[in-house]
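Recap quiz, item 2
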Amino acid sequence: GQTTYQTTVNCLIFQMGFLHLFIVNGSGGLIHHRPLGPLASRIGTNEWLRIGSTFHSLHAIAAEASPVKLPGNKHPNGSDDGIEEIEAGGLVLRCLQTRTRVKFVITAEPGTSDLDLALREIYVLYADFALKNPFYELDMPIRCDLFIQGVDALMERLERNASRR
Amino acid sequence: ARAEVSSQFGVATFAAGLIIMALVYNFYIFDRHGECLFFREWNAPKGPPKHGYVEDQKLLFGLLFSLKQFVQNLSLRESPDPMQQLETRRTRLHIFETATGLRFVINTSKTLTNLQRPLRKIYTTLYVPHVKKNGLHPVGVGGPSGQRIVSQKFTKDLDNYINKIMKVNTSDSGSGAASQGSKSGGAQTGN
């Protein structure tokens, strides 16, 4: 059996099992990527670029292969249909696409809570600290410090909420 | 008021009361070369595919192939667990892959959440006995000749099994998939 310490650590990791965040612009170019937690594996920049553009295509093809077409071919929030979630044995991936075709994608360990919440909060941070930043160029890689700090703070907050439960 | 579920295709009519529909749209079996060995459709809200069924099957196989590599790139472990589900806004795609590279793929509404066990059941109780172990079935299914599945018993039993799944998961009382575990192997047609 496990010691109490081991069980506690396992519980914490289980609840805050965020792995990576990446953001893809409307043309499929990667504009941001970062690890979100201690469990995230290290992935090189070139690999990330490939992951970003691959996901962009797969997102669209999945909508094409789906047997149901959305009314007007659009999600109620104005965005296109596409991959919302992928579940593999050891990985959960969740995507939020905005009506401007920017995709926010999070990967996490299965069972991680608050994936949707995290995605929406990150979208808000993007709107506040990237889009409203007069020096940020649209569709370019995001290098805004306040955005990065905002995501750090969000992860900390989610961690605290998870351990409180 | 009770709901009436018509026998074949999961279409429900009801007098009053809320129903949660469980719909199965279609089902594919691919071998590891990308050949579609079997395709069956029960509900097609979009109608027939724009460029034909063969193109549609190629598209789906390409999607699955690329997604598998994609997930492997992102996954933590050395030998990552296989991809199981893919969700879009309205549909869920479930995949079960065998050790020999056979993929059982099913598209359903999002009310059906975990079809790994049913897909595995289709493999062990329908595919293996009626196709692989069937002495009268042409050989070469899953091999380089790309022989497709032609067994009518397989198709019939599959239809029955899928109808059962749709019926069990369509309810206005939320009994859901709890009774699925008590289903015997899909080869039974008696009830």
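Chain B touches chain A at residues 25-26, 43-46, 56, 59-60, 62-63, 66-67, 70-71, 73-77, 80-91, 93, 107 (CB under 8 Å).
The longest helix of chain B spans residues 53-74.
End of item.
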